[in-house]
Amino acid sequence: MNAAKTPAVRAVELEKDYGDAPALHPLDLVIPVGQLVALIGHNGSGKSTFLRMCTGLLTPSGGSVEIVGHAAGSMEARTALSFLGDAPVFYDDLSVWEHLEYVARLHAVDDWEQNAADLLGHLDLYERADDLPIRFSRGLKQKAAIAMAFIRPFDLLLVDEPFVGLDQRGRNALIELVTEHHERGATIVVATHELSFTSRAQRMVILAGGEIVHDGEPDAGVAASHLG
Amino acid sequence: MVGLVERSGAARRIRSFVTASPTTAPADVVAELRRTRRKHRTEDVEWFDLAYRVYLVAIVVGSLVWWISGFLGEAPITDAGLTDLRRWAPAAGGLLVALAFALGLRSGARGGPIALEEADVRHLLLAPIPHGVVLRPPTIQRTRSIVAAATGTGAVAGQLLARRLPGTAWSWVASLAAAGALIGIAYCIAAISAHGLRLTELVATGIGAVAIALQVLALQGTLPAGPFDTVGSLAIWPLRVRPIDLAAVVVLVGAFLAALPLTERFSLEALLRRTALVAQLRFAVTMQDLRTVMLLRRQLSLEACREEPWFSLGRSRGPNIWKRSMRCLLRFPARRLIRMVGLSVAAGLAAVAEYRGWGAMFVVAGLATFLVGLEAVEPLAQEIDHPDLTESFPIEPGRLHQRLLLPSALLLALLAVPATLAAFALEPAPSTLLVGLILGIPAFLVGGAGATLNAIGGAPNPSDTQAEGAFLPPEVAGMHLVFRMVRPPLIACLGTLPVLLVARAVDRGDDGIAMAVRGGIAVLLLAGAVFWWVERRVAFFTWWRSTMSEAKQSREQRGIS
Predict the structure, then answer these.
(1) Is the ipTM of this complex over 0.90?
(2) Band of the pLDDT at A142, cuts 50, 70, 90?
């Protein structure tokens, strides 16, 4: 396999249905390495379903999806992919710091402490490092989840509705992190309703009713016309 | 150690990990996390509280065993009974294994047998660690608890049966405990295999049905032996020892060890769905909220109402509330209807066992009618689930609830037919059909009455100071809570007691049918009383609350003066 030409994401005839209801019609999508993609669409358009199939959390009803050349959910794909979901998930009995240590060490990051401290500082969460995130407000939970997504190495970052609940400083901090990692070569896909983010992306994919209705340069006008 | 690392401060200097390197699986990190969390949990345990709970469970289980033992009696079994036992016990015990196997297959097809924390699915199972490393320990732990529960149940059954059977109590306890353990293992093997092999629910149900059918044919004598006979045979070792039965132990333990690697293939989607629902399910069980348990169970098994009703009522003019209730029943999915018929058959078979002298089976029959009732009163339960809508209707809620029950009562009466036919299959006499219907229809109606009480009672609300029982002194409040929980199934069980009366009348040489009519009328009166209560209860509680409120005001005024 030619690693240089292997895309970060390759979805072929990928589809998903929940019983009678189709969530994603057969979809083909290739995202080259290093691209920053804005995936936009209304609620129920299939954004989260697509991202979750890339992570392996959902099993496709048909077709396939590969992450840097490996089947979604495989060990290699899990090594390469970091997922920041729309609803932060934490253990009831671990502090923010313990969560970061845990995730970092699961990914065999040995010298994680300084980076954890820096990330928490960047997200204004350093003072809460020893608190249980399960008791946080929605916004603070989102910040803790962001720290967990960035504490580990990745080639591909999938982000689902990242701005929900974040204050302006939190939004700026997240955008800085995304930009920095993208500049260093990571592939990043951000699913969002927020049209303002599309101007930062290199590519805009619009989903509607489980189908791609636009795939091209970011264009606020096009996005607005589809999202109404 | 997790969480004890010294931190150097918050500098604005984020190191960027861009290129992920494939890592060797840090399984030791998972083990360390589990140790740390276990330590956290142990630190949080209130030992006195735990001891008190163990004490309560011991009291309840002990009382239950003592109560059931009263029905089993102590008279030694007859020679004919012993011959029957030797002949049929292997196939009957095998049928229990087949049932456990079928249930396990269904559980596995729905994502069982384990339920992880959502955080485990999202963080551990998305990390570059082999899934088997993460999933094997909880699977083994789950197997351990299921096997322990099954072993305990077997041991209790052995202790009870030993009073009527030859052989020492310890030999019966040991052999039935071993059989129980194997039943538990069979359940877990089936669940792990169905999940790991990603069997669909249809295929899993089909395989389970074949296993049950083979075992039923063996029980009938059509087949010389069933696939699980050896486990049943192991259960009667105190009567006769067959070393070949030990093969069941070897095969099942071997199959379990062979199935364990299939955890690697468990579906993340199924685990994630199960994770959320099982957490809610546990909470609902803690709250003694049976209705929520039912709803979550339906979600867990993806059991949704039919888009199209079985047949349309069209635009026919008719009583509106009746039609609303009928529309609900007509959208029951096939699997729910099949389950109801299955429970009806089980009630019929238990009633025959009750008639033949196993008096305690009235509880099994009663619980089966109660479970059928819980499904049948769905139109009422839907209304109770949406009190805001009910309050907006220009009709007194009690009257609305009462009218919603009429189609449910009709359905329950029809469900007495499968029970009667099942009883007829075991007792093929014309009088069985007659007595079956005379007793069956009221029994199912009273099963529905118990379910109705459960639905209108809802879950206990500890914060409602106006609730029934809120004014009781603390010494009585606990008993009141237990009574409130037990009352619905207890009423349902009363509906199957007349079978015992008929059996005694026949033993005495009296007219069994006359006794059935008298018993049936008594049970019908009980169902009627509940039906009446559904309408009157709102008025009663309004009166009760105003009386209590007046009494409180009066006490306060006297205190002031």
Answers:
(1) no
(2) very high
